[in-house]
């Protein structure tokens, strides 16, 4: 990758295109003597140098070395060396090969970035439910794909591939089926899995995923779920009624309208906590029925 070097590449291509015409090769070129009009076959200057003086009937081509920060990459007869490229954005680019007079600087995007025509762009992050199909390189962006049924990409890990949902071991039961962004949650009817600490450990990947997707603090979601588990007997049957502040009220004040975004966010968290609590309560009820 050589940013801003297109004009230099064209120049070199024009020089190279002259090779092979009328008996000349990459090391020589034809020139018409301005005095005698005689055709002279002159030597080109080697990489790392430039033309100082054309050949004459009595002397060969004179070349001069390129100075600091300049280069020529091919045998040539250009009057001035070319300026070396610089890796301008040091935060996103690195020098793969420094300019040394005979080759130009070679720049490359740093890890986590790829070259997008004019600058280095950060690799895309796969959306929840999508896994990496092809990892990003310094030259290409990450390619993502939607996880197929029965597969998931861990949303708490950046850019992972889709993998198959785990199957519950023989002594465990399915507590929460896996989705495209989290694995299956399996549990036993052991008393530990029914304690607040027990279910928090079981659902930690799910709560972490909710935190990544919606910014819900894990500790807050744990408190919301525990609160519902303590009131669990009234939640097992029927659906949760809409919160009072979301019920129809023709006399809604301006202050209530301004608080609507935070109210909706709180309601969303409450609905998620309800869903998790219902899963746990149903599982506990199932375990109790097996003991009878």
From TrEMBL:
Keywords: Apoptosis, Disulfide bond, Glycoprotein, Receptor, Repeat, Secreted, Signal
GO-annotated cellular components: extracellular region; membrane
Subcellular location: Secreted
Region annotation (Disordered) ranges: 229-253
Residue ranges of every copy of the TNFR-Cys domain listed in the record: 65-107
Pfam families: TNFR_c6
TNFR-Cys repeat residue intervals: 65-107
SMART domains in the cross-refs: TNFR
Major subcellular location class: secreted
Signal peptide: 1-23
Biased composition (Basic residues): 229-239
GO molecular function, one term: transmembrane signaling receptor activity
GO BP, sorted A to Z: apoptotic process; immune response; signal transduction
Superkingdom of origin organism: Eukaryota
S-S pairs: 66-81
Classification via SUPFAM superfamilies: TNF receptor-like
Name of protein: Tumor necrosis factor receptor superfamily member 11B-like protein
Organism: Labeo rohita (Indian major carp)
């Amino acid at each position: 990758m050589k940013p801003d070097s297109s004009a230099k590449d064209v120049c070199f291509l024009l020089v190279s295109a002259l090779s092979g015409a009328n008996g000349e090769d990459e090391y020589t070129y034809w020139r018409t003597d301005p005095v005698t009009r005689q055709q002279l076959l002159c030597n080109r200057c080697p990489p790392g140098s430039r033309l100082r003086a054309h050949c004459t009937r009595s002397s060969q081509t004179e070349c001069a070395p390129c100075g600091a920060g300049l280069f020529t990459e091919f045998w040539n007869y250009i009057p001035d060396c070319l300026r070396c490229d610089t890796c301008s954005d040091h935060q996103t680019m690195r020098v793969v090969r420094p300019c040394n007079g005979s080759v130009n600087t070679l720049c490359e995007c740093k890890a986590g970035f790829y070259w997008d025509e004019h600058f280095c762009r950060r690799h895309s992050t796969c959306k929840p439910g999508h896994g990496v199909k092809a990892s990003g390189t310094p030259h290409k962006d990450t390619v993502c794909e939607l996880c197929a049924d029965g597969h998931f990409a861990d949303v708490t890990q950046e850019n992972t591939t889709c993998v198959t949902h785990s199957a519950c071991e023989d002594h465990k039961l399915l507590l929460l089926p896996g989705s495209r962004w989290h694995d299956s949650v399996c549990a036993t009817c052991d008393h530990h899995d029914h304690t607040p600490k027990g279910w928090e450990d079981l659902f930690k990947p799910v709560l972490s995923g909710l935190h990544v997707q919606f910014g819900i603090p894990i500790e807050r979601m744990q408190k919301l779920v525990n609160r519902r588990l303590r009131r669990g007997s009234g939640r097992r049957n029927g659906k949760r009624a809409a919160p009072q502040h979301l019920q129809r009220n023709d006399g809604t004040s301006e202050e209530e309208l301004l608080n609507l975004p935070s109210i909706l966010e709180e309601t969303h968290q409450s609905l998620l906590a309800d869903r998790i609590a219902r899963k746990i309560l149903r599982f506990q009820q199932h375990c109790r029925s097996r003991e009878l």
